[in-house]
């Protein structure tokens, strides 16, 4: 009589069985389309990430966010391009689906700005004020982090009690505290991110609730980040680390690694590492 023994395989990052029975698995037709090639170096160089928050569901984002109704992103892209040489470094621009706190009769021309790794939120920015905000933040270098101050690292500046930038009375600026996870959910750009991203966000919400981290861990559904073939794509701020091929079962270890600053836990995430925000001077 012969017998066969089935061997159980485990995910090297989460330790979950493959397939995982505790966390939601991606649809097979999506999972098979995920690129398993090398991800290191797949992040375009950038020193800041600007997320434009509006009450627009990810399902309504066009393939190119510059085509969003109201031309807010298109105008912002134009100003960033026009001032590129004065700014002196690359800025990643994304749309974010949020419940805005703006009070306006013209929501398509008003947005909340989330600036990383500065960890600040600028509320109620009208399309007519875009140029002023870009000038103050990025050209005049008046944010919490002074990119052009080469004497201090980003990490050192974040620990200091730097003053928030000041704007017109109707624009509010506040610090963002805790850990922030940005998840690509841009379906019309690529269905892999469009299907996987919301599943990752569901898992983040579930874990944050169960671990009682409501005030400590936050997330944004964002538009195309680049590298959708490596979905799920997640960026961690203020660290600026990019991860790809993220599964739902990776979320607990990802959050715990950056909440605790555990190098041991971060080392488990190395197979998912894509790259990093440019912090070199």
Explain the overall architecture.
With 281 residues, the chain is α+β, with helices and mostly antiparallel strands. The protein has 2 domains: 48-175, Glutaredoxin, CATH 3.40.30; 178-276, 3-Layer(aba) Sandwich (Glutaredoxin), CATH 3.40.30. It has 8 helices and 12 strands. It has a 10-stranded mixed beta sheet with strand order 7-6-5-3-4-9-8-10-11-12. Strands 1-2 form a two-stranded antiparallel ribbon. Strand 1 (9-10) and strand 2 form a beta hairpin. It is globular. It comes from Rotaria sordida. InterPro entries: Aim32/Apd1-like, Thioredoxin-like_sf. This is Sucrase. It holds the Pfam family Suc_Fer-like.
Global mean pLDDT? 90
Which stretches are low in confidence, meaning pLDDT under 50 for 5 or more residues running?
A: none
CATH architecture of the largest domain: 3-Layer(aba) Sandwich
- Number of domains as seen in the coordinates: 2
Order of helices and strands: EEHEHHEEEHHEEHEEEHHE
Number of helices: 8
Strand proportion, as a percent range, falls in 15-25%
Rg over CA atoms, rounded to whole Å, is 20 Å
Largest sheet geometry: 10 strands, mixed
Helices and strands: which structural class?
A: alpha+beta
């Amino acid at each position: 009589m012969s017998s066969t023994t089935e061997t159980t395989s485990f995910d090297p990052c989460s330790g979950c069985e493959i397939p995982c029975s505790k966390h939601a698995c991606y649809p097979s037709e999506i999972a098979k389309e995920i690129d398993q090639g090398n991800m290191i170096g797949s992040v375009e160089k950038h020193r800041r990430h600007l997320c434009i928050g509006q009450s627009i569901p990810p399902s309504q984002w066009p393939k190119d966010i510059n085509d969003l109704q109201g031309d807010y992103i298109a105008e912002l892209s134009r100003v960033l391009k026009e001032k590129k040489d004065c700014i002196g470094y690359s800025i990643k621009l994304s749309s974010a689906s949020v419940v805005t706190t703006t009070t306006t009769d013209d929501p398509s021309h008003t947005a909340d700005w989330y600036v990383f790794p500065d960890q600040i939120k600028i509320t109620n920015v009208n399309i007519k004020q875009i140029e002023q905000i870009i000038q103050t933040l990025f050209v005049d270098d008046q944010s919490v982090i002074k990119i052009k101050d080469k004497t201090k690292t980003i990490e050192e500046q974040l620990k200091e009690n730097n003053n928030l930038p000041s704007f017109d009375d109707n624009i509010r600026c506040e610090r963002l505290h805790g850990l922030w996870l940005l998840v690509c959910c841009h379906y019309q750009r690529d269905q892999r991110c469009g299907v996987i991203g919301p599943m990752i966000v569901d898992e983040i919400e579930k874990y944050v609730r169960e671990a009682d981290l409501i005030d400590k861990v936050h997330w944004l559904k964002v538009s195309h980040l680049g590298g959708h073939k490596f979905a799920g794509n997640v960026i961690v701020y203020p660290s600026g680390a990019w991860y790809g091929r993220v599964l739902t079962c990776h979320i607990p270890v990802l959050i715990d690694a950056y909440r605790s600053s555990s190098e041991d836990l971060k080392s488990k995430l190395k197979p998912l590492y894509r790259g990093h925000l440019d912090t070199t001077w």
